[in-house]
Amino acid sequence: MKLIMTILTVFCVQILTAQTAQPTILFGAQSYDIHSKIINTDIRVSVSIPQGYDPKSGKKYPVLYVLDAFYSFPIIHELNKMMSNEIEPVIIVGIGDDRISLLDWLVTRYPLLTHDYDAYEDSFQVNVILHGAPVKLHSGRGQTYYDAIKNEVIPFIESKYATNTDRGMIGHSLSGLFTSHVLFKDNGFFTRFGINSAALFHNNDEPFKLEQKYFESKKQLTGKVFISAAGLEGDNMFVNRANKLANILRSRNYKSLKVESVIFPEESHVSVIASMLSRSLYSLYGLPMDRSIGKGHRFYN
User: Fold this and answer.
1) Domain ranges of the chain
2) Each residue of 118-152: b (16+ CB within 10 Å) or e?
3) Shortest CA distance to 79 belongs to which of 291, 290, 230, 277?
4) Whole-model pTM?
5) Is residue 277 within a helix (H) or strand (E), and if so which, with residue range?
6) 3-state DSSP call for residue 272?
7) Contacts of 45 (CB under 8 A, 6+ apart)
């Protein structure tokens, strides 16, 4: 009888153990906390390596840095796997912490992703986006954050992985605004840019002033730029400005710049995230190939 009870106890323990909730893992991804002396805090980076990555092969890979990894990295990490036959092999690095609350993330990201002080937007973020939360926001730490990314995050990644100097950056919303600043302030160090649903209106359309100043400097813009917005974001805030930036860049006739732009109809500021990440990835790293499905099949038409 004791033997039967022991067997039953072990069996029940095994069942309970098997049913215990386990933490979700992004298979194939690696994460690190890099302490930044520049912004005096840790920066969480998550890394997605391409299919077939072999650091011993001698091959060097381009790196795409994706901001707002709080929500963007899990999506683009899986896209990196699923689109492996459609894009060139690329190491994707998400910058941003996914272990904090939504409120903490919103409060943290706003100052770091804005290069300029804008009192109106500071007030709008608190009263409307944060629903009057008892916090104070002060925009304008973007350059400091960029210094941390360039001088602390990137050297860490390039010392640990088989990278080349082909660097890209993708951002959405405030991080799209951040990416637009990088386009004009450090073109050449980065040469691939995804500017999606960007808050280009910040500080009275500051990115357009940067663009004009850059053009007047008679420098060349180099690389690939993908610009997008969502149809439900509103023409005045996002759509018209996205189209305006794309059209201006095309009109400059930069010899070494390729510009693509898309407006995603019937998508909102948040529902567009998956679409813009997928399209950015292909626009910036896509292989010249037939992407259709079923050609040659009797039902394809």
Assistant:
1) 30-285
2) beebbeebbeeebeeeeeebebebbebbbebbbeb
3) 277
4) 0.89
5) helix 273-285
6) coil
7) 31, 32, 33, 34, 69, 93, 94, 95, 153, 156, 157
Please, are residues 284 and 194 in contact by the beta-carbon 8 Å criterion? yes
CA distances from 49 to 66, 79, 106, 183, 244 (A): 13, 12, 28, 25, 35
**Residues 153-193: tens digit of each pLDDT:** 999 999 999 999 999 999 999 999 999 999 999 999 999 99
The burial class, CB within 10 Å (0-12 / 13-18 / 19+), for 56 is exposed
Tell the residue number behind the tokens 């153990």, with chain if given: 17
Q: Where are the alpha helices (DSSP H) in 125-173?
A: 142-148, 154-160
Q: What is the pLDDT of residues 198-217, one digit of tens each?
A: 999 999 999 999 999 999 99
> Would you state the structure tokens that stand for residue 250, as one six-digit string?
């095309």
The 3-state DSSP class for residue 71 equals helix
Cα distance between residue 94 and residue 48, in whole Å: 8
Q: What is the mean pLDDT of residues 85-106?
A: 86
Amino acid identity, residue 154? I
Phi and psi dihedrals of 103, rounded to 5? -65, -45
Q: What is the CA radius of gyration of the chain?
A: 22
pLDDT tens across 234-252, in order?
A: 899 999 999 999 999 999 9
> Which class in CATH covers the domain with range 30-285?
alpha beta
